[in-house]
């Protein structure tokens, strides 16, 4: 694509670094591409829509200043948003201009596939360019309607308007002329007369090439989409000296207020809590000392096993308990955030937002396992979030490269045209349509607009039709592909007949998957083929919704199905990304997909903050991003690497049988860590600082001068003295745009310097500047950074981005940041920020825990072990991370300890020789401290006592099953390099589709169930045997029986949910229960024979017994 005003020779390939290179390809009717040379194109004498091309050029610098107009920029952006970009390793990046993205009609002007009026040029069936409202963009004041291609041809050939035959003149109707009187800052370009235009030679690097970093940061220049801009000196006033100071004074006129506050736990709760920890720690020491000094000489083996287990349990308790000594709560003030960043002022009369941009990532991999409707609802909740629309960009990563996901996302973008303004108009919450329309209760509560009921009924009907379209996509794609493949077979057969070939031979036509516009889908096909399989396809990038205008775009009563008068109808930028995959490359699963999104978003939007969500976790609180921003933009927020939100789940059974809510961890452990260096990263619902993801240390405020830190971005060496400009490609790859975006993202992510105590900030108003439009070059660069080869010989996955090498890449990624000195914050909102789904089936839950525990074992045996951490990791935070790697090993001691009561009952010996008063007193004190600590922890964390008990039960269930399997897996992998997978083998039960908890009753057999079953059966049998033997003894030893039976009952009480899960639905007893019953009956019969032999002595039974 050629910019208007550039030289005619710009289509050729120049040898200089500033030359422009164009790649051409022709799309045939069969959907394939045929490459064309420059000569072929010149001979054809055509430049039609069949020729797909893009331009690779150096961004505007003092050496390269192409002329441009607002119309050309609008044409470029519309071309980009209507094109599907593909490319990858050793392949040309192509822009495929799509006639339509989905079968249904597209109405929103931001969406790909939206069209204007017909072009007035003879023999042209193109569509006129449209603006943000969908109105035609007419480049000449004679109002001659012309499409983009014809406009580009007219500019290239004569420069005259085909209508009036005069040079293009833009009239007053062109509303795209930049107008910064509304509060936007003017942009000091490199051709500013106040700048030195002859600095090109001064800004050369050692190789003689133009040094973009030097030019950008030493001259306060501007370029790039989503980049930061430095205002002119007199932007706030006529005098050049006091302009910026005047803007600073505006914000300092008001009394400074913090955006967030720390709320300490009341002393009446936390002081006794800490005291009990110390008391239990001391008593535990005395107890273990007594146990070691008083062995059971009658059963040394039993004593030794119990002492070893108890010592490990004490160590494990210390690792878990000590990091909980300083729990805190936090609160935010959204009103202050609005006052600081969005309130109208003399320099910002319209209240344009000064908040930084946020890029939201949603990852999905398989539309069969992760239904597209679920992902679509998550996307809709993101697009409707309460945040400055122009500052948001949503990216969905489709790691499966499926057309089904692509078209489902396009349908979601189309439905957002109605759903998002409806949410804004009526303040809808939650903004996931599936959840909203499923809410029980009165939907009119707190709604005052008279048209709400009518609007809701209409949107509900449209949503039902939307769901039907999504559900029908698989069949629609299949029928479409079959029809086009049959057409291709007919063409091939006709060709064979005309060429005289043998028509009896089988026709070799690939079974392709076809898009809605009648071309091949470049991703995965339903029938896998070379370069079209799950692990072998090109990189794909489609801008589903182009960036919105910088100012609100109010709707009307005529544009849409509903009356959206005085409602902002803009939608955030939305991009579909499927990274390139090729055989022989390690794509690193979810972590690799997230890193691809980090790079693509850096090139396209470069939001200083990144929020990642799983495809089944949607935004439940539309102000969640603003809550997190209160911490990032507050004083001292420059060293916060991420904001972790708690995970909340829906669809869990009321009793929460398997502790799926995990409230003890999210409301207890995470609050406690928030009082140290911050919570761990748990994989979803986390808002990152992009700069921290790039592997840099937090800014050293004390070492940076106040002037440089507040007024300009810093150089690379200011962040990392060991990183030279020449080493940027080794760390981040060879993308220049990506490298240049890093310091800009850092600068935009700083808090505003509105208080003397803020020594590391940015000037107020610096982010009110509108974004530059997207161009083909930028999108082509984004395609190149998601190619499979880009990470080769770089530090992506090792130091930069999500860390590779572990199943739990989330914990490792957060650990690396804390290890570099960053801190994190736990944000608990009054209304849940996000909600998602969790497995309620026993087997699925065990496999989920198995994956987590396996990742922890990998962490323990890797260089991410907290024992090897740097001095920047605080002591208690180090203990918390050490516990993450150690806790699965507790399973080895736990399973032994669960067998000890049974062994004690079988052998007739107890873990101690006699029930000494000292032993009982210490044991009682430890138990009382444990109960008191649990009560106080429930108090300060807000966890229910029943939830705490469910967590304790599932801790034993998972500890004797999944955690043990994870240790076995980890040891075999480390020692012998053998990998074992525990898979499902059979299903039974739960066939009631009407029961939302039907999955709870499914019994899926897995080998993970064997250890808990054995533990439960052995303890039951041991109690029966011991009771029978004690009754028939001449001198009954009830003390030993009661001691062993008490601990056996303790084990069985914890295994109750596990046993209940094995029983399935009431009235549907699995066959295995009958097998167990038979085994127990046989065992009891044999025991009866053993304890009641046929001799005269056995009949003499004492008439009574006494307790010890």
Automatic annotation (TrEMBL):
Bilayer-spanning residue ranges: 273-292, 299-319, 880-905, 917-936, 956-978, 1013-1032, 1038-1059, 1071-1091
Query: Species name for this entry?
Result: Rehmannia glutinosa (Chinese foxglove)
Q: What is this protein called?
A: Cellulose synthase-like protein
- Is Cell inner membrane there in the keyword field? no
Q: What are the subcellular locations of this protein? A: Endomembrane system
The membrane topology noted for this protein in its Swiss-Prot or TrEMBL record is: Multi-pass membrane protein
Q: Which UniProt keywords apply?
A: Cell wall biogenesis/degradation, Glycosyltransferase, Membrane, Transferase, Transmembrane, Transmembrane helix
Q: What is its main location?
A: membrane
Q: Which domain of life is it from?
A: Eukaryota
Region: Disordered, residue numbers: 1-21, 181-206
